[in-house]
Amino acid sequence: MSRECMEYSHVRRRRHRQQLRRVRGCVLAAALMAALAAYAGTGMARPAEAPPPAREPVSTIRGPVFTGPEEDALMDGELEELVSGVLAEIVTEGMSPLEQARAVFDFVHDSIRYTGSSEKSDWVQGAYDGLTVREGDCYTFYAVSRAMLTALEIDNLPVEREGGETHHYWNLVNCGNGWYHFDACPRSSRLPAFFSFMFTDRQAADFTAEAGRNYYDFDGALLPERAAEVITEN
Questions:
Q1: What share of the chain is helix, strand, coil (3-state, %, to 5)?
Q2: Which pLDDT tens digit goes with each residue over 50-76?
Q3: DSSP three-state, residue 158
Q4: Where on the phi/psi map is residue 118: left (φ > 0), alpha (ψ -120 to 50), or beta?
């Protein structure tokens, strides 16, 4: 079975399970209301109100579980459907994790227009906006990349600029050969040319020294040790 079919089947099974849980929840709620009504009718003391059942996460994108306010941004799985739809077009069976990551990089870099602004309070919402509106700033490129890499089960972490007058966000990615920087956001033509796919700390520092503005300055203590072997030439 192809990867696209497997992902589609997985989504359908998950949604079926969610529907069954909702039905069971409704049945339990109805039974509880009937019991409370019976107690009230006989004048007996009412039992303490039972806590509501825990909500089932609405996303099956693998990785950190989406909970709390982030669930609302998913709009009942719309982000998951958007991500799955894109991956079905750009990822083919037999691709290595590194090739899959490159496909994600190319799609995000080429398909989203840089506008210099975005909502940054919730990366899930940022990813949804990026895939629907197809515009945003560095946070949008980071968020869309994060959603797609996570769906592919490629380890990734957020990185934020340290210092400087402006913020910048990008990803740290491990395709099985160590952690590398991954920044799908386009840069100004006034900056030096730089291919920002799977680059090392040294390459980041060299570019920053040439570009200035603390471009890829970051706190390495907050991140796992990065690989030193160069796999992307500039």
A1: 50, 10, 40
A2: 444 343 333 333 333 333 444 444 445
A3: strand
A4: beta
